[in-house]
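Lab channel / #folding
Pinned by the channel admin:
"Please post every new chain as: sequence first, then the C-alpha cells as a reply. Keep commentary short and put observations after the output so the thread stays searchable."

First post following the new format, from NK:
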Amino acid sequence: ATYRQDMRASLFQSYIAAREADLHVDLVRERDGLGTRHQLYLLPCAKLVTAPTVEHLVERVRAGATAYASYFAGSTDNQRGPWMPWINEIFGVEQQLRYGLVDEIEDDEVTLEMATDLGDLVAGSKLTFSAGGSTRGCAYLPVVAKGAEVLAYDQHGRPSLLRHRLGSGSVVLCTYPIEHLAARTRSVNPESTWRVYAALARAAGVELPASVDDPRVMVSRIISAERETVIVVNLSADSVEAKITTSRDVLLMDPTSPTGTRVDTVSLAPFEVVVLVSDAGSADAG
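Reply from TO:
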C-alpha cells in the first residue's frame, strides 16, 4: 500500500510540474504499452519498472526519443533501493549503493548547478529543491559517470543530472527523487522541477503550440471541429503579466475583438482565466 501511495504522490507532482512547463501530458499504464508517437518520456521516482517497459523505452530512445527518470529508494523499511538492475548499463553510470542501505540527503535543500547546457538551462544555472519527505525516502543515488555526460552537480560536487546517448536519442538520470521531495513538502509549488521538464522538452525537440515562461500560469488547448481555443489560467493569487510564446504556425487572437486583434501578452488578475482563439490546425504537436 505504501508503494502505491508513493507512486500516486510522485506521479501527481510530476503532472503538476509538467503542466507548469505547459507540456501536454499523456498518463499511460505500463501494461497498456507506451506507444510510439511521443518524443519525451518521464519516469518520476522510478523505483519499480517492468522489463517490457525498459525494452520499449530503449527502443524508442534509440529511434530518437528522450527518456528521463529520477531515482527513488522508496519510503519503507524493507526493500530499500531501486529494483532496477539495469541502471548502470542504460544510464552510463556506476552506482555506488551499499546493499540494504540508503544514502540520506544531508541538507534541508538540494541545489543542482548546471555544468553544461540542457535546453534553455544554461551552464551555471542553479536549481533548488526542498528536501522534504521521510528519512527513508529522502535519499540520493551515488554514481560515477561511466559513459554518461554530467549535466549538473549538487552542492557537494556529486553528479546529479546525467545524460547518456543511446542511438539517436538519450536517457537522462536525476540522482535525486525531486518529485517525491516536492510531493512531501507543504505548499511547495511552483518549485524547480518544471524547469527541468521544460529543458528536457526543448532538448527533445518537443514543439509547444503555446506556452508561458511562468509556472504560475498554465496554457491549455481545446480542439473542436470548428476551432482551436487556447486557455490561459493564472493559478496564483498574484497579478501576472504573461508573455505567450507560440510555435511558428500558431497565431493567437482575442475573440472579443471585432477586428481580431493579435495577442502576444496577457495581463491576468489573481486566478483569472483568459480565452484566446488560435488559427492553427488541429494537428497534435506531440
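NK: Residues 281-286 have pLDDT under 50 and may be disordered.
TO: also worth noting, The first strand starts at residue 40 and ends at 43.
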